[in-house]
Structure formats: C-alpha cells, structure tokens
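for the recovery benchmark. tokens below, seq after
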C-alpha cells in the first residue's frame, strides 16, 4: 500500500541514519528537562494532540487558537504573537484554513522551523478534496500528517529521532484501530447524506462513505445566496436529507430556517475539540465524539 511504503521508507531511513551516526544508545536517552524541551506551537487543538503523540516528553506543545475560537476567522492578539516568538517549531494547516496564522508566523524567530501541512500535502499530490480540514480523516493523519511531523521534529531535534519514530509507530497502530472503530460505527447507518454549515467534513465523509451534499457557507463567514438556499431545500426534500451539521454552538439563523423547512435535525459537531472536556481532549476522542453523534443522527433521520 502507498501509505505504508512512504511511512516505512521514512522510518527506515531515519532509523538507519541514527544507527550509523549516533550509535544505538541514542534510543535510550533520557527525556530532556522541562525547560530544555522543544517548544512547538500549533494553530489548532487537534494538531496539538497529534504533535504531542509524536513528540511525547521531548516537546511542549501549545495551541495558538484559544478554546472556542474560530479556526477560520480568528483575530490575532499580542499573547498569540508572544507564543509564536518562543516556539522552535510552528505548525499550521494552511490551505485556506488558518490564514490568520500567516501574520503570527511572521513574528517567529529566524532559527525557528515551520510546517504548513496542507501545502505539503498538495505538493505531494495527495488526496486533494479542496477542503483543508485534513485532520478529520484518521487515515490521512496516519499516512501523511504523522510522517510529516516525524520529519519536522527530527529536523529540529535530530537526537530525538528514534523517540519520534517509535511514538509514530505506536500512534499509527492506534489510528488504524480508531479507523476500524469508526468504520464499524457507520457500517449499518441507513442515512448517508447530510448538509453542513461549512465544508468541514469532506475528508471525513469520503473516508466513511458518507456524502456532505451541500453547505450553507460557501466560504466561512459568507452564507450562500437565497437562491442557493432554496436549491438546498429542494435537494434535501428530494433526497430525504434531514441532518444539518453546525460547528461548536455557532448555529446560524439560516441553518435553523433550513432545518424548519426540511424537517431536519441541527447537529452540533466539534471538529476542533476541547482540552477541558474529557470526551474531546485527545485526537481519538475528538474523532469518536463527532463520529458517534453523526452516526446516531443519520440513523435516526431515516427511521420511521
Ligand atoms: Zn472549519
């Protein structure tokens, strides 16, 4: 399989490099003291979760976007700039998602490294579905994002390479299990189509054989025209779609109006997770939380 080959080649190359250059004992180095850890700043919490899985106790990861903020339309403040200045490695999604990070990253130290995930994925010719919410597919995370992070961490902290490779191998297994769990959740779900407030679930839908049939905001913050809204109502009534997903409590009047016209369920999802909520404070939990809610709503939506 393509992903296995790419990831395996990377891990083998890194492992060989370490064995040749640093000696096998580098694998058993103690974790650095807290103030010597690599400082990593990411734009959104799911990236922090993934980065922490790979970095383990060699890194301290912070999230630039405050809890509850919009990944798309955040206003940059001084605290965020300060966080970016101290970071050794800055990671963002890019690809039209966290555009505000451009300003923040411009204040980074000259010797700091940065990684734009969607930009690299596009260059690599990966699955480009025109939706930057790439973390919402655990297989895409496993096959593309995890290797990118191992590379980025190892470039900044070569002594930690074995540590990062080992963590990635463990996390890779967890992602494979998580994907199976999610496949099972959607296996017997009768309804497969939904409408979303914005195009956040393209990768997720693609992975689990669902269809995000339409969106209320063509770009975040810009609602579709009244004519397009009418077309969505017609489509939903014609295809029997009754689920409209909103994002973290930001249900709009348009979503409510549409739900009223199609006998629909407004389903609030959380693609960004929340460090203070036990059901959404890890990558796996974020995915489970959303998948379970969506599977239940889709199932209910077509029961008599
Ligand atoms: Zn979004």
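predicted aa per position
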């Amino acid at each position: 399989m393509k992903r296995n080959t790419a990831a395996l080649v990377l891990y083998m190359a890194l492992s060989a490099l370490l064995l040749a250059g640093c000696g096998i004992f580098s694998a058993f180095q103690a974790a650095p003291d807290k103030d010597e850890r690599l400082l990593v700043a990411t734009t959104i919490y799911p990236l922090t979760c993934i980065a922490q899985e790979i970095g383990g106790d060699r890194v301290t990861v912070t999230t630039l976007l405050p809890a509850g903020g919009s990944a798309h339309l955040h206003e940059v403040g001084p605290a965020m700039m300060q966080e970016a200045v101290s970071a050794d490695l800055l990671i963002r999604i890019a690809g039209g998602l966290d555009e505000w990070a451009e300003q923040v990253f411009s204040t980074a130290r000259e010797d700091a490294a940065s990684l734009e995930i969607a930009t690299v994925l596009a260059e690599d010719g990966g699955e480009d579905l025109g939706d930057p919410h790439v973390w919402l597919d655990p297989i895409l995370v496993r096959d593309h994002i995890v290797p990118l992070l191992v590379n980025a961490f190892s470039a900044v902290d070569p002594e930690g390479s074995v540590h990062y490779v080992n963590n990635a191998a463990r996390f890779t297994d967890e992602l494979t299990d998580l994907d199976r769990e999610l496949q099972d959740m959607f296996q017997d779900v009768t309804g497969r189509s939904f409408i979303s407030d914005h195009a956040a679930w393209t990768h997720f839908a693609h992975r689990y054989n669902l269809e995000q049939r339409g969106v209320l905001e063509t770009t975040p913050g810009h609602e579709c025209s009244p004519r397009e809204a009418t077309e969505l109502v017609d489509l939903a009534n014609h295809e029997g779609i009754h689920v409209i997903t909103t994002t973290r409590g930001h249900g709009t009047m348009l979503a409510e109006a549409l739900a009223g016209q199609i006998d629909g369920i407004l389903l609030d999802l959380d693609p960004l997770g929340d460090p203070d909520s036990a059901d959404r404070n890890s990558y796996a939990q974020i995915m489970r939380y959303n998948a379970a809610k969506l599977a239940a709503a889709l199932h209910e939506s077509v029961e008599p």
